[in-house]
Amino acid sequence: MSDGKRPKLRVRKTRPIGQLGDSPPSKNHPVPELRDGAWFLPEPISNRLHQKSALGVPVSGGVLLNAEEVMFCHWNRHVPLPSGWVDDRIAEDSNFVYKSVVFDVVREGGDKVVPIDGKWLRWSRESHPSRGDAEAVIRWARTGDDLDISELLSWAQSISKEGMLAELALIDDEMDVTMYRLSIIQPQGNLEPATKNHYPLLGVEHLSRRFLREDELNWINGVENQVTDLFGELNSRGLLMRPGFKYGCRWRVYSTPVDVDHAPWLLQMEEDSPRNWEGVSLSVRLAEGVHKGWVIALKRDDWCFLLIRRHLPGR
After folding, report:
1. Which of 97, 151, 280, 295 sits between 20 and 30 A of 46, alpha carbons compared?
2. Do the domain assignments include residue 66?
3. Does pTM surpass 0.85?
4. Residue 246 falls inside a structural domain
5. Of 212, 172, 170, 174, whose CA–CA distance to 194 is shortest?
6. 3-state class of 76 per DSSP?
């Protein structure tokens, strides 16, 4: 840097086992006990865990926690673990550590994330399951897991129909977690749609004439394929498409003339979309670095538009 200062390095959490952190309680909390396939903690600690942090399922005399909730309580609520407990969980489930770290991260901002019927439902830090509905569903994956864009679309659509946000937590091999929010959007612009005979905003002016791209010419000439179909759909929405080569996508999509405002979206077609999570991470980070949203267009009965953007827990 020009002033000789170096940026402050981020401190990475290591989440040790057996160390109960700062300000431990004056009286040690009890060790969780296996009961009915879950982990039981008695009163009074159970009351605080559930009433304040929405941890565990209330039962007579205490709460039942699942494994990732136990780990969260160990790291954040001074709850000790039975001897050999972590080794046993890893032996049962090779993804146990990754799942537990993700659960810890998604609760870092104070949000209440509750495992219910195989899903993680999220309430804001100001809310509680006893006082209102969840605002989001969180799923998690490892960066090496298979990526299925079509399944992601279906999942985001189903969550949207339930009136909730769809959030995805990705954990890499360094135990770092990146969160994304998936939204079904309806991009709309303010431009007069071009026609096959009148298209003043298409092409680029150069050498005292106007040069049209292949996709523009194909649309004007009535060529039928997925690209011209999508071009026509976006054009009918009052949008203008310009090449996205510099941003690694098919089009920059404008809602205004190019000389009026920046393109709000970078759009990729499903057939050209990333085949792995590294590609998604790169595309989203690049788009947000230039203040745009990264969108995948998928043709089902109609065109669907899936917006993927980064999300910080608790914000």
Report:
1. 97
2. no
3. yes
4. yes
5. 212
6. helix
CA angle 222, 262, 236 (to 5 degrees): 30
Summarised one tens digit per residue, pLDDT across range 127-184 is 999 999 999 999 999 999 999 999 999 999 999 999 999 999 999 999 999 999 999 9
Task: Strands of the chain (E only): list them.
Answer: 33-35, 38-42, 57-59, 62-65, 112-116, 119-123, 136-142, 165-171, 177-184, 204-206, 209-211, 240-243, 251-254, 265-269, 293-299, 303-310
Specify whether the CB–CB gap between 184 and 306 falls below 8 A. yes
Q: Which H/E stretch holds residue 160?
A: helix 149-161
At residue 44's C-alpha, the angle toward residues 98 and 101, to 5°, is: 10
Cα–Cα dist 278/117, whole Å: 30
Beta pairing partners, 38: 35
Cα–Cα distance between 312 and 167 in angstroms, integer?
A: 10
Q: How many domains does the chain have?
A: 1
**Residue 235 located in a structural domain:** yes
We report the CATH number of the domain holding residue 240 as: 3.40.1350.10
Tokens of 288: 């947000």
CA angle 287, 239, 222 (to 5 degrees): 115
Contacts for 124 with CB less than 8 Å, ≥ 6 apart: 111, 112, 135
278 φ/ψ angles, rounded to the nearest 5 degrees = -60, -40
